[in-house]
Amino acid sequence: MADQVEEVKAKTDIVSIISEHIEIKKAGRNYKGLCPFHSEKTPSFMVSPELQIFKCFGCGESGDVISFLQKYEGMDFGEALKYLADRAGVKLTPLSFKGEGEKQKLYEINNLAAKFYHYILLNHRVGLPALNYLTKERGLKRETIKTFNIGFSPDVPLALKKFLIDKKRYSYQDLEKAGISYRRGSTHVDRFRGRVIFPLFDHRGNSIGMAGRLLPNTKSQAGKYINSPDTPVYHKSKVLYGLNLTRKDIKKENKAIIVEGELDMISSWQAGVKNVVAIKGTALTEDQVTLLSRFANEFIIALDSDIAGDEAAKRGINLAQDQGVDVKIARLGKYKDPDEMARKSPKAYKEALEKAKSVWDFLIDLTFSKYNQKSGEGKGKISRELMPILAAISDEIVQAHYIEKVAKGLGVPRDAVADQIGKIRTKTKAETPKIAIPKKAKEKSRRELLEERLLTLAFQSDPKILNEKKTFSLFNTPLAERIIEEYRKFSKGKKKFDPSEFAGGLPKELVQGFADILLKDVQDLVERPETLDFELKLVTKELELLSIKDKLTNLGQEINEHEKKGQKSKLKEAEQKFTKLTEKLSQLEDDESRSIIH
Ligand SMILES: [Zn+2]
Predict the structure, then answer these.
(1) Which of 16, 85, 185, 579 is the most interior residue, by most CB within 10 Å?
(2) What is the pTM of this model?
C-alpha cells in the first residue's frame, strides 16, 4: 500500500494537478496563486514542484497532491489515490483500500439503472407517456433529455431485476444498498417504479442516486417526488444537482445561480443559463456552501418560495455569507418558479438574474411591501421583522448603509434604529456563532524571522554561504541550526544542490520547517543579484546586532556578579569586553537601514 502511494505520487506532478483547478503562476522556483481555501486578494498560496507540496501562508493549509484533492475535491484518501493512479497509469492492487470497492459498485449499479431507465424513456413504448409529458408539457428537447440522462422507470414488477440481476449478475442486497429497490415481505420492489427518473451525480460525475417524479394524474402513497435514501455514496445534504455539468461555467463566471428543483435547473440550462445548480430544497446546507464556494464567490438565489418566511433558507444564506460569499436574490415577478420563467420568457429570466439584489435589499424591500409603513402599527411590524436582520449584518459599513435605508423608509431618525439594533446585539451576543478565523502561526520573534529569512534567501539562491563559519555563527534557534547542520553534511563533495533530494533525506521533524523556507516567495529579491546581495547584508547585519545585544546582556550580569564577589581581574576583563562590544554595536547601528521582512 505505502509503496503504491509512493509510486502514484512519483508519477504525478502536483503543479499540473493543482493548475487544473486554480490559476497558479511561476514565481521563482515555486508557483503561486490565490488560495482556494480562504478568501484573499493577494496570492499567498504556494506550490513547490521540488518538494511536491503546497502551502498557504495566509490560512496555513498545506499538504501533498493527495491532500490537495481531498480538501479541494472533497475526495477521500482512496478516491484521490485512485484518481491519480488512473491518470498516471498505475494499477492499484484491489485490496489496497477498503470501502472503495463498495462505493465503485454502488456507482455502477446506479449508473446501469439510470441507463436502463433512460433507454426505456427514449426507446420503449411504456416510456412514451413520460416522453410526451417531458417534451410537450415541460418543453424539454431530446438533446436535453440525453444530456441529463433522464429516464422512466416502468411500473412493471420485474423489469429492473431482469436487467441488473439476471443479466448483470448483481444481487438483491446490492440493489438495496444502492437504494434503488427495497424488500417488501418476500418480494423486492423497484423504489422508483412508474416515475420519471432524474439521475443524480456528484460533482465529479459519479452516479450516486436518483430522484423520481410521478407523472401528473398518477397516484402513489409515496408522494410526488422521491429521492434515493442515504447510502454510502448518496447524502442528500451534499448534492448539488447539475454541478457535474455546470461546474466549469460556474467557475468561469465566478457566479452560481441556485434554484430549487431538477426541472428548474434543467430549464434554466436549456434556456442558456448554464452556470446553474439545484439544491433540492429551499435551504443551502453547510456542505453545499463549502462545495459551491470553491467554484464561485457569488451566489444568486432564484427560489420560488417566500424566503423571508423560510427560516431554513435564511440560515443557508447566513452560512454562505459567513464563508465570504456574496449572496443575491433574484425576483421572478409573476412567474411561479425558474422553470416556468425560463420556458416562457428566457429573456425576462436572464434580466431578473442580472438585476438580482443583495440579500439585505431584498429582505428590506420585501418587508416594507408587506405592511403599511405609514401607520404606527405597520411601522412596528416592519421594525420587529427587520431589526434582527439588520443586527445580523456583520460588516459595519454595510450595516450602517442599511440602517440608513430602513430609517428613511420608516421616517424615523437613524439613531432610533441604531439603538434598537444595539439592544438586540447585547441580548443575542452569547448566541451569535463565532466566525472561524484562519489559523495563524503563533507570533514569531524577530530573531526567528531573521534566521528564517536568511535561510530562505540562501536556499532559494545559493546555499553555499551557509558553509561559511561567519554565517553559521549567526544562527541560534534550534530549527535553523539543525537544518544548517544537515545541509553541511549533505553538501559535502556535491557541486549542485538538489532541494528535493535534500528534503528526502531530512529527519521528519525538520521537513515542514524546510518546506516553509523553500515555499516563501522571495522571487523579486533572488532574481537580481544586487537586490539579493543587499538584502543578505541587511539580514546578516541585523542578526549580528541581535547577537551583540544578547552578549551585552550576559556580560552585564557577569559584571554584577564579579563586583559582588570582588573578583577584580575578572571584572576588568569583562568590562573591557563590554566596551569593545559597545563600540562595535554603535558602529553597526550607525547604519539605520533594516531588512524588510514580510
Ligand atoms: Zn489559504
Answers:
(1) 85
(2) 0.64
